[in-house]
Amino acid sequence: MGERRTDEVKRRRHTPEQIIRKLREADRMLAEGAEVPEVAKALEVSEQTYHRWRATYGGMKADEVKRLKELERENSQLKRIGRGGGGVRSFSRGVE
Fold first, then answer.
1. Cβ contacts of residue 88 below 8 Å, gap of 6+?
2. DSSP string of 5-56, one letter each residue
3. Cα–Cα dist 50/44, whole Å
4. What pLDDT score was predicted for residue 27?
């Protein structure tokens, strides 16, 4: 009952740098004539993950991805501050 199939892909988180490296490897393999399912298997990710990475990180370089992640983290912090009531509030009063 608790058995796992041996052909399942192990779940893990990848850093943006690892994703960029794997996408470069995928580009090389695709240029050599490999198909997407073969590439995904070689990269040890699902096809869905490969396509999501390609859509998200497509033409980015590692430093651009790092900056994107920093901005996303900062944005989520600002959203939390705004929801918590400790942020700056704007009032819609007319100035006379």
1. none
2. -TTSPPP----HHHHHHHHHHHHHHHHTT--HHHHHHHHTS-HHHHHHHHHH
3. 10
4. 92
**Quick one: pLDDT at residue 89?**
55
3-state secondary structure of 94: coil
C-beta atoms surrounding 16 within 10 Å: 19
Whole-angstrom CA distances from 80 to 71, 88, 91 are: 14, 12, 20
Q: For residue 14, what are the contacts with CB-CB under 8 A and spacing of at least 6?
A: 22
| C-alpha–C-alpha distance, residues 29 and 23, integer Å | 10
Confidence of residue 94 (pLDDT cuts 50, 70, 90): low
Q: Does 91 have pLDDT greater than 80?
A: no
Which residues, 6 or more positions from 68, have their beta carbon under 8 angstroms from its beta carbon?
16, 60
> Is the distance from CB of 79 to CB of 65 less than 8 angstroms?
no
